[in-house]
DNA sequence: CCTATTTATGTAACCGCTTACATTTTCTAT
DNA sequence: ATAGAAAATGTAAGCGGTTACATAAATAGG
C-alpha cells in the first residue's frame, strides 16, 4: 500500500495526500478531511525510506561504543537514546569492541544508510587508522566525539576532563595523608591515557616526581583488578587509584580478603560503588551531562545551527 | 554522486554497474574492469536507502530493550550486535524503559523504516496493550521475543526457563538445610512472574504450601534490595532468593552490615557476583545462548527458512 | 461584473537504485 | 558462411515518496 492508494481512496492527487501528511503547503479543509478519512480507513503508514530518499534525512543517528556491557557505555547509550527519542531520531547502536576496522566498517555502513549524524564514544589514543578516515568522513556527515582524541578536524568534541578527575582524587588522598599512591590503568583509550597523566601530574605537583613508576597496566574487569592487587601490595602502598570502578572492585576484594590497610578509589561512580563494602569513593565523570551535551551539539548541527566545537565537562569527587 | 556518474566514467550503462556491484548477472571481464576502475577512481559508495527501496530489505533489525543500563539487557544487546554484525545486519537499539507506548511507537518507527525484523527482549506479564498490537504487527514483520509472554500468535520465542532456575536455587538451599526462604521480586516483567512462580512451586513441593507469604516486591537496584532486607529480617529468615543480582547485592550489604546469619542468592550471574564479598551464588540464565538463538531464529526467517516457534533454554546454578 | 490575486490542486520530474525485457554481440555447431 | 543459442549490454519501468511548476478554483478589489 502506498500514497497512490490513499489518493485514490480520498479522491485527490498524491501531492495533496503528501501535503496533509507533512502539514506543508495549502490544502482546503474539505480535502484535508477526505485524506484524513482515507488515512484512517486504510491505516496507512508512509515509507520513511522513500521519504528519506528525497528529503535527504533519515532521522537516524549512529552511536559507536567500545563495549556496551561496560556500565559506562551503557549509561551513555541510555541517555543518548532518551534524548534523541524526544527529538524524533532513532539510534543505530554500533559496538566496535575497540577494533578500528570494525569502527570504519560501521562508519561506512552508517554513511551508506544515510545516517544523519554519528556520535563516537571513546577512542584509542590518537593516530589510529580511524582518525585519518574520520578527517574525510566528518566532512560528509557530522561527527561528535565523546571523550575522544581531539585533534581531528571538523569533528565536534564533548569531553569530560578525566585527567582533572584523577588529579582531584589524588589530591584528596594526599591530603588525607596517604604516602604511597598507586595507579591502575585498565584500558588504552584516549581517556585512559588522560587519567594516567592526571595521576602523574598530581603526584609530581606534590613532590613525587616519578609517579610513572607506580602505575600498573591491566586488562579490564574485576579479576584484572584482583590480579593487579597481588603485585601492587608486594611493595608499600596505602592507596590504589583506579581508572575504573570494576578494577577497584577487584582490588577491594583483595584488600578485604587479606585485611590490607589501604584505600581504593574508582572511576565512573557506577552503581557498583554503593554495592561494595566499604562503599567505593569514585570520580563522577558526569555521564548524563556528557551524553546530553553530545546530543545537543549534534542536534544543533542537524538543525542548521552552529554548535560548540569543544565542550568540556568537569568531573567531581564522590567520597564515601 | 550516484550510479550514473560511475556508469559515465566507466563508459557503460547503469545496469552493468549495478551488476558488478552486486555480482549478479553476466558481465564481461572487460567492462568488469572498467567499472571497477571507475568505482575506485570515484570512491563510490552506493546508497543502501535507494537499494532498499527496491529490494525490500534494509539489512537493519530492531532490538527493543527495557533498560540498556541493566547488565542483563546490555549483555543481550552485546551478543545480538555481534551475531548480526557477522551476518551483515545493523542494529537499531530501542530502549523502552518499560513503557508500552514507547514500545509501540518504536515498533511503528521500525516498520516505517522497513527494519527486516525485530527482537524484543523482555515483556510485561501479558495482556499489555502492546500484545494486541503485536498480533497484527508480527504478520508484517518478523518478531522474535526473548523471555517474553508467549501466547502471541506468529511471534517466535526464545525463552530461558527462569522459573526452573529459581526452583533449582530453592531446592539447593533447602537441601542445604535452610528453613526460612524469602523471595524478592524486583520487577513486573513476564520473566519476573515466572521466577516468582518458581519460588512458590519449589516451596510447595517441599512442604511449604504458602510460599506466597514469603515474597517481597520492590523496585530495582541495590538500594531497593537493602531496603527490602530491613523488613525481611524482622521475621526469621535464613535465605533470601533474589530475582536479580543487583537486589542480592543490596541484601548482602545489609547482611554484612548487621552480621546476619543468612545466605543470599542472585540471578543473572553477572560480573557483580565475583566482585562481592562473599561471592554471590547466582542463576546463570545463559544470556549468550539466548541471544544467539534469537539471532539464529530471526536470521533463519529472514533467509526464508523455517525456524523453531519456541526455543527453551535451561538455566543452571553457579554456586560460590 | 470583470480583472487581479490568492489559495488549492494536479502533473510530472526526481531521489538513486534494481531488474524485467529487448536488443545487440559473441560463440558454437553445422 | 550461417542459423541458433548463449552471453553481454542497454532501456525503461518501477520502488514510494517530495516538490517545482502549471493550472484551476476561490476570493478580493474596483
How is this structure best described in words?
Two copies of one chain form a homodimer. By secondary structure, chain A is of the alpha/beta class. Chain A folds into two domains: 3-44, 434 Repressor (Amino-terminal Domain) (Orthogonal Bundle); 57-320, Response regulator (Rossmann fold, 3-Layer(aba) Sandwich). Helices cover 48% and strands 17% of the residues of chain A. Chain A has helices spanning 3-10, 14-22, 29-42, 48-55, 71-86, 100-112, 129-140, 162-175, 190-205, 222-232, 245-258, 272-275, 287-302; strands spanning 60-65, 90-95, 117-121, 143-146, 156-160, 181-185, 215-217, 239-242, 263-267, 281-284, 310-313, 316-318. In chain A, strands 2-1-3-4-5-11 form a six-stranded parallel sheet, sandwiched between helices. In chain A, strand 9 (263-267), helix 12 and strand 10 (281-284) form a beta-alpha-beta unit. The first copy, chain A, starts with a helix and ends with a strand. The model of chain A has no long low-confidence stretch (mean pLDDT 95). At the A-B interface, helix 4, helix 5, strand 2, helix 6 and helix 11 of A face helix 4, helix 5, strand 2, helix 6 and helix 11 of B. Chain A binds a DNA duplex (30 and 30 nucleotides) through helix 2 and helix 4.
Amino acid at each position: 500500500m502506498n500514497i497512490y492508494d490513499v489518493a485514490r481512496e480520498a479522491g485527490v492527487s498524491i501531492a495533496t495526500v503528501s501535503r496533509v501528511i507533512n502539514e506543508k503547503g495549502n490544502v482546503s479543509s474539505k480535502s484535508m478531511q477526505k485524506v484524513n478519512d482515507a488515512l484512517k480507513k486504510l491505516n496507512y503508514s508512509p515509507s520513511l525510506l522513500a521519504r528519506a530518499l528525497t528529503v535527504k534525512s533519515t532521522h537516524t543517528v549512529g552511536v559507536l561504543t567500545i563495549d556496551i556491557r561496560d556500565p559506562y557505555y551503557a549509561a551513555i547509550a541510555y541517555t543518548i537514546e532518551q534524548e534523541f527519542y524526544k527529538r524524533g531520531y532513532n539510534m543505530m547502536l554500533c559496538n566496535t569492541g575497540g577494533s578500528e576496522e570494525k569502527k570504519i566498517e560501521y562508519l561506512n555502513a552508517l554513511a551508506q544508510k544515510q545516517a544523519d549524524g554519528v556520535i563516537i564514544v571513546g577512542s584509542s589514543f590518537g593516530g589510529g587508522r580511524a582518525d585519518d578516515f574520520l578527517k574525510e568522513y566528518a566532512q560528509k556527515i557530522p561527527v561528535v566525539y565523546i571523550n575522544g582524541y581531539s585533534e581531528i578536524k571538523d569533528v565536534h568534541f564533548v569531553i569530560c576532563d578525566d585527567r582533572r578527575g584523577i588529579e582531584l582524587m589524588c589530591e584528596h588522598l594526599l591530603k588525607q595523608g596517604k604516602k604511597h599512591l598507586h595507579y591502575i590503568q585498565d584500558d588504552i583509550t584516549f581517556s585512559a591515557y588522560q587519567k594516567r597523566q592526571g595521576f602523574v601530574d598530581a603526584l609530581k605537583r606534590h613532590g613525587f616526581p616519578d609517579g610513572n613508576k607506580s602505575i600498573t597496566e591491566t586488562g579490564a574487569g574485576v579479576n584484572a583488578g584482583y590480579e593487579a592487587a597481588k603485585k601492587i601490595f608486594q611493595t608499600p602502598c596505602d592507596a590504589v587509584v583506579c581508572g575504573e570502578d570494576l578494577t577497584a572492585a577487584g582490588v577491594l576484594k583483595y584488600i578485604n580478603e587479606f585485611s590490607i590497610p589501604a584505600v581504593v578509589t574508582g572511576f565512573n561512580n557506577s552503581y557498583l560503588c554503593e554495592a561494595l563494602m566499604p562503599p567505593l569513593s569514585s570520580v563522577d565523570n558526569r555521564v548524563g551531562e556528557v551524553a546530553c551535551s553530545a546530543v545537543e551539539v549534534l542536534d544543533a548541527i542537524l538543525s542548521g545551527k552552529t554548535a560548540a566545537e569543544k565542550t568540556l565537562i568537569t568531573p567531581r569527587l564522590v567520597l564515601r
